[in-house]
Amino acid sequence: MRGRRAIIIRNQVSIVYKTRLYHTKLSSGTVTLAQSFDKLCDGGHVKHTTLPDQIHPKKSNLLSAFRKVNTQWNEEKDMYDPIIKAIRPFYAKSNVCVVNTHSKGDFRADISISAFDDDRVPYFLWYFIELKLPSFALATSNNRGQIFQYCHKLREKQPY
Predict the structure, then answer these.
(1) pLDDT of residue 28 exceeding 70
(2) To 5 degrees, how large is the angle CA 141–CA 146–CA 152?
(3) In Å, what is the CA distance from 74 to each residue of 23, 81, 131?
(4) Which of 20, 104, 139, 142 gives the lowest tally of CB atoms within 10 Å of its CB?
(5) pLDDT at 8 exceeding the cut of 50
(6) For position 37, what pLDDT does the model report?
(7) What's the count of helices (H) and strands (E) in the chain, helices before strands?
(8) CA-CA distance, 3 to 33, in Å (whole number)?
């Protein structure tokens, strides 16, 4: 098991890392998320890759809906409702829920797409979205550490 590799794809970010990291807790306390992620990189446990352009029949409709969103945001929390409103119509005919989980429950990604919109979100999560203001650099160790933290939380809730 130690040498086996696993691939996790969330929010169009692909990170390949050794399976044993699933069972390794990120550092906590006075250690920051950035320091935790940097430690994983320094240990050779993380390999960054890029994903090819996604092909989906509704992609152009979704991109069109996002272009209509007012992007005059002052704070990250101002992004949640407009983005959720743009995504929800694509799941209107299904039982899929698009939920603002930023300050709700014990899984705190900004937006979650799940089979439920209550405390069961992390147990039935399909995707999560972490938003950042356009003025911020996305590929920082702190942001990547945050995504790793979410993946570890999901691993606790969905161990299968």
Answers:
(1) no
(2) 125
(3) 38, 14, 13
(4) 139
(5) no
(6) 79
(7) 4, 6
(8) 25
pTM, two decimal places:
0.72
User: In angstroms, rounded to a whole number, what is the distance separating the alpha carbons of residues 100 and 121?
Assistant: 11
**Token reading at 140:** 């920082």
Taking only the tens place, the pLDDT of each residue in 109-144 is: 999 999 999 999 999 999 999 998 887 788 788 888
Residue 5's DSSP bridge partners are 18
DSSP 42: H
Q: Which two tokens stand for residue 28?
A: 């906590």
Taking alpha carbons only, the member of 63, 20, 68, 65 closest to residue 44 is 20
The residue assigned the tokens 């409709």 is 61
Q: Which two tokens stand for residue 62?
A: 């979704």
Residue 32 tokens, joined: 């920051």
Contact indicator for 145, 36 with CB cutoff of 8 Å: yes
